[in-house]
Amino acid sequence: xxxxxxxxxxxxxxxxxxxxxxxxxxxxxxxxxxxxxxxxxxxxxxxxxxxxxxxxxxxxxxxxxxxxxxxxxxxxxxxxxxxxxxxxxxxxxxxxxxxxxxxxxxxxxxxxxxxxxxxxxxxxxxxxxxxxxxxxxxxxxxxxxxxxxxxxxxxxxxxxxxxxxxxxxxxxxxxxxxxxxxxxxxxxxxxxxxxxxxxxxxxxxxxxxxxxxxxxxxxxxxxxxxxxxxxxxxxxxxxxxxxxxxxxxxxxxxxxxxxxxxxxxxxxxxxxxxxxxxxxxxxxxxxxxxxxxxxxxxxxxxxxxxxxxxxxxxxxxxx
Length: 319
What we know:
The chain has no helices and 28 strands. It is mainly beta. The strands form seven sheets. Strands 1-28-27-26 form a four-stranded antiparallel sheet, with no helix packed on it. The protein has a four-stranded antiparallel sheet with strand order 2-3-4-5, with no helix packed on it. The protein has a four-stranded antiparallel sheet with strand order 6-7-8-9, with no helix packed on it.
């Protein structure tokens, strides 16, 4: 279909008669080696993890689950295994033969990233690094899962601070004292691709009302600055080299998926998402920056969509 606002071509990947959920942009779920995406769906009744081949449109279920959490679906750097939380169990599925393995119990969330596939889990309010059978507690009083940096050397996590909002912290994966990075009306942390700083959204009060900024903070938490003001982003993600951001606007008047050029601090509407809940959209670049994937319930139930952006964004490495 052609987007009415921009005339860009949007391709729907899943059927809106059933629910399809894309994982958060911090989770690796779009392949860089071959064209496929991982997602959650209830196409067979209960929510389960699925593999969609983008060349052939073939869909295959990855596991029989009891209480699958689609927000946790992710794969490792080599794209050999996918991971997700089913009930309180952290499951690993081999993408070739679909063999399953339970890695940990009593897990509420997790993240995997880095060249060594650093794996951290959230368990009973504690952030832990898993390495085989060894478990290292990195922090306690943790509200949300940790986000491992691309280098696999640091983990960002958040804590709820009551009336003062949320705090973002960094801790080395080898352990040590957590460092406060930012505090207040902050959300949606994303590592800069070079792992040298953290990107996140901050809401501030301006002359025109509430404004949402993409902010960047150094690893020691001492240097925080504005990258760009956004059109009410509720979520965002950088491309592979951090030169462009893709965001979903929470604006009711302009329910858009938006490209934001970092150097020029200029926004460009990619398409309308028309999603009833903007936090469901979760746009993300393909690893080569040629496509943008997002979700919307504009045609019924939540479905997955893709837009080609190779004429708008310089390609990066990847398939």
